[in-house]
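Page 37, continued from 36.
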């Protein structure tokens, strides 16, 4: 049997890699946050799994420097717990786990879709359902015996609707059609144009097409959408209502698959769109959920999603309750400063 050398920092390298940002944290085995780093989005579907994982290296090195170790040999820590966006299928999770093994970061490695990290952040154990509505949308459920409920989450190809990118795109669709006469009137047209300081929503579309306005800024339209909906615009209200309906549909299907409709069960809500706690959306979601799954217990997670990766990693190390409480307290109190 091959002897594994002791890691430099016993504990967990927690990685939450989302569509728009990535957080990395070195967590001691006692739950102390030793070092953190933040970078851009994680896109293995565009550049390949190995390249995407390799792109995490600067963040791991930054977190190690923050922990007081600018260089190291051997393995950095005991376990890598990675919750990754775009790891939507089990085969993708396994391929990304294999890619992690090629880096000297952890003695062991696990990879799950980032929605499982949200579920862990919002629960004390492996039971419940989580819906993430951030740049995209996804849902997972988990039981203590390991059974899961999940969706392919490959976009329209697999029946998905919603998330920030979709809401922004549909808002633009209605706004431009309102301007050119193909659609009915909506205050979204003027509000979007004013937000970007351009004469029309059509001009916003042209600016993105020509590269004068970064496409990444389109996510800002989600805030515009909610403001216009708050003012009573029917088109904006319809989009918010459709998003609430989709979130609840996902949750109820997952609860049903896991036979959790007839008992109290947490439904964890997170991601940028839900974590912004827009009353129009959240009140709609909770009302729909109360009708469709009266025993469900909705919870909004606003702590950084890397908390879920850290807790899953500590679970892997044996589930020390004091360590879990310490890391949860650090993240729920605000973005932690490395010890």
């Amino acid at each position: 049997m091959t002897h594994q050398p002791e890691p430099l920092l016993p504990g967990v390298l927690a990685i939450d890699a989302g569509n728009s940002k990535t957080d990395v944290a070195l967590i001691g085995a006692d739950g102390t946050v030793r070092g953190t780093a933040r970078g851009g989005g994680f896109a293995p579907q565009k550049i390949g799994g190995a390249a995407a994982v390799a792109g995490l290296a600067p963040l791991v090195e930054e977190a190690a420097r923050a922990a007081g170790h600018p260089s190291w040999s051997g393995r950095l820590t005991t376990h890598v717990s990675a919750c990754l966006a775009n790891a939507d299928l089990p085969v993708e999770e396994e391929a990304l786990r294999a890619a992690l093994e090629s880096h000297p970061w952890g003695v062991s490695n696990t990879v799950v879709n980032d929605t499982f990290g949200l579920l862990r952040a919002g629960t004390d154990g492996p039971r419940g359902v989580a819906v993430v509505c951030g740049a995209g949308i996804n849902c997972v459920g988990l039981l203590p015996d390991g059974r899961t409920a999940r969706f392919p989450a490959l976009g329209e190809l697999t029946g998905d609707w919603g998330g920030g990118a979709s809401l922004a795109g549909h808002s633009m669709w209605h706004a431009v059609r309102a301007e050119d006469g193909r659609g009915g009137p909506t205050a979204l047209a003027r509000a979007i144009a004013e937000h970007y300081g351009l004469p029309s929503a059509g001009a916003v579309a042209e600016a993105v097409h020509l590269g004068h306005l970064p496409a990444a800024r389109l996510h800002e339209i989600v805030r515009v959408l909610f403001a216009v909906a708050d003012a009573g615009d029917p088109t904006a209200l319809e989009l918010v209502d459709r998003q609430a309906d989709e979130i609840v549909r996902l949750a109820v299907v997952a609860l049903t698959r896991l036979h959790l409709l007839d008992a109290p069960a947490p439904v964890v809500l997170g991601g940028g769109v839900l974590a912004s706690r827009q009353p129009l959306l959240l009140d709609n979601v909770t009302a729909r959920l109360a009708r469709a799954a009266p025993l469900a217990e909705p919870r909004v997670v606003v702590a950084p999603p890397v908390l879920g990766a850290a807790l899953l990693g500590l679970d892997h190390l044996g589930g020390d309750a004091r360590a879990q409480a310490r890391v949860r307290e650090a993240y729920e109190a605000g973005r932690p400063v490395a010890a």
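The chain has 14 helices and ten strands. Flag for discussion at group meeting. Strands lie at 9-17, 22-28, 33-39, 77-84, 106-113, 128-133, 137-142, 148-150, 265-270, 296-300.
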